[in-house]
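User: Watch each token:
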Amino acid sequence: AVQLIGKHFNCPVFDSGRSLDLLSMPAASQQGRFSHTDHGKSGRAFEKYKCRYLPGRLPPEHKCDHWAGREAVRKRPGMYIGSVSTKGLNHLIYEIVDNSVDEHLAGYCDTIKVTLEADGSATVEDNGRGIPVGMHEKGISAERLVFTTLHAGGKFDNSAYKTSGGLHGVGSSVVNALSTKLTVRVKSGGFIYEDRYERGIPVMDLVDGLLPVVGKTRETGTTINFLPDDTIFDKTRFKEDDVKSRLHETAYLTPKLTIIFEDKRKEEPEKVTYHEPEGIIGFIKDMNHSKETVH
């Protein structure tokens, strides 16, 4: 929210109703909603009308754009994950896993662990380099930018990954927006950093724009735990057979990668390790194991 000539104007993050271009706004006494469709105009309007942010409200303008993206995802989730059925629910896991696979393809990760937790959440952990936690040029931690902005991940930076396995490259921010809660832990540079979100909105205070340190470690990697939003999805119980099948297919396509699956929702937890050093050849052999081959 901003204060303009003694009046408050609401950001579309909080109310997606009628928008109003600030540049065309008179030195008004009326209330309106400023448009987030033209970032440049909004910025110039702020300067023209000498708007100022109120304490405790939205930080600088780029964050308004981030959160507006969150609202778009929550309003039409099917555009990003296909559906709000069990298929779309499982896809949340695949998006996070594919980010870890990209790290493996870049040569920095050899193990991914996927856990279906007893509380209905899912955890994806890898031993890659860890999501960057340093200060981004936009003035916030790079990790927070990744989890709050569409198309901010490494797939949209030509220097980050030469190959990419994700569906859209918007996985982290979309999963975040569609989760009741999400926690990120990054192991990097000898420290453990943590960030937490609720329905896509950060709930942890940054320290000088950076993530707080919650521990020390000699390991590297990223751990993401998320609980799907039951107000978005038809059902929030992951289908383990579909998830295991997808993980096994991924293992066939990445022969040097080990994927560990664990389901803690059962009375006796299930644990399966997928590692297919023969790759596609191993996949063909498994398909034909009960058949008589010609050659």
